[in-house]
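Lab notebook, page 48
Experiment: co-folding of the full assembly
Goal: obtain a model of how the components sit together before planning crosslinking
Operator: M.T.
Materials (sequences as entered):
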Amino acid sequence: MNDVFEIIIGLLLTIGGVFIFVGSLGLARLKDFYARLHAPTKATTVGLGSVLLASMIYTYATEGYISVNELLITLFLVITAPVVAHILAKVAMHHQVKMMPKTRNAELVKLARKQLPPDATVDIEEDSRLP
Amino acid sequence: MLDIAVIFVGIVLAISLVLNIYRLFVGPNASDRLLALDTMYINSIALILVYGMHSSTTLYFEAALLIAMLGFVSSVAFAKYLLRGDIIE
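Observation: model returned without errors.
Model output:
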């Protein structure tokens, strides 16, 4: 294999590994669920994209063709990671997971759980339309 | 040089999986555990790809694609169950 290819693949692999490690460290160390949600869904996706790019270049350097599987995995992951993050945030909101005390605008969660806009004037406790 | 990078990234990914397992066992409520499981899917995809580069074969990419698809579907199904108490209403 060419030396240039080796250096590029090694750099991409190392960057990807470091990003994935930072994401997992954030998952283990951050304080509440809403903060923890940020680390794996953003940093880990970037890291896996970098590893997949390295794998694609490796296939090109050794076999001589561009593999489509890695592109498919990258596309699928970039589409699905935000969906999972959104649905998990919704789960946490409806289960009333505890927040950090210094979370800003925490009172809007009550309105959001009833699917009302932020400037709704309805009194939440006394509205009979809502369950 | 590439061998050293591959082995280094493999070790880093193994440590990341151990951190995810810590959150999977400790996590105070169900959504934390679900997030840890979803991260473990992504980390295992990366580990499979790195192992494929280590053993210089392209056989494992289909396995990685399968884990990516089924991981997403199972994460959404778990979250839907936690959210509504049922998966398909």
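Interpretation: The domain at 2-84 of chain B is CATH 1.10.287 (Helix Hairpins).
Next step: discuss with group before ordering constructs.
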